Amino acid sequence: MSLKGKTAVITGSNSGIGLGIARELARAGADVVLNSFTDRAEDHELASQLAAEFGVGAHYIQADMSKGSECRALIEQAGACDILVNNAGIQHVAPIESFPEEKWDAIIAINMSSAYHTMAAALPKMRAAGWGRIVNIASAHGLTASPYKSAYVAAKHGVVGMTKTVALETAEEPITCNAICPGYVLTPLVEAQIPDTMEKYNMSREDVVKKVMLERQPSREFATVEQMGGTTVFLCSDAAAQITGTTISVDGGWTAL
Question: What's the CA dihedral at 42, 47, 49, 50 to 10 degrees?
Fold first, then answer.
């Protein structure tokens, strides 16, 4: 599944799922463009490390995904964009009657509207190149719901809907658009939450993971960032050329319940 000669732009990719996807795309031979809202030396160093490790082109572009103009500028600055992975996202948990308006606006902007802006900017480049792959990182919450996550659930359902729409708009072209719907993925951010949760519930690490964090994930195991990356690489391959407008759940059976 070589992606040599392709350029992939991955939003929200200086850590966690986004960085895991970027690594697997680079491993498959794609040049990669990393992104986040920060502009630190270590962000640019991540790109240099990927370039050195996998022998691909890699660079980092700062862009705030809450701002449509910066989303579009990211795609323009990237130059080519054969593969677009919309991964940037944030979360906030609160009952809807007390959900902060500014948090609602930020979650909708970063988790959903950014995908609209990047896809709108990337599609002309893909059409000019005669090939394209769009992979939107939605969530199990793009297919089901949980209490106190109104903005996140709304945004991820919106991403799934946009994915289907763009797939239909490009169905007769060599461009596909799909969404991956992960459950809980073991990222550094999730890993950091485990010790506090162990203390809060006076539980072992194993019990916290299986009985608290993965209560809704039937496998009782986290997905990994490598699995997220591998699924993305598959969707970008020729083997997936007729897979478009759909969702792939990487959720340990969550949405089978």
Answer: 150
Neighbours of 14 (CB within 10 A): 21
Its domain, for residue 67, covers 7-185+224-256
What CATH number did the domain enclosing 146 receive?
Answer: 3.40.50.720
Share of the chain above pLDDT 70, in %: 100
Both tokens of 130, joined, read: 């005669």
Report how many domains make up the chain. Answer: 1
Helix (H, G, I), strand (E, B) or coil at 65: coil
Q: Identify the active-site residue in 60, 116, 148, 152.
A: 152
Whether 1 has a pLDDT exceeding 80, the answer reads no
Distance CA 147, CA 159 (A): 19
Q: For residue 54, how many other CB atoms are within 10 A of its CB?
A: 19
- Residue 201 annotated in active site: no
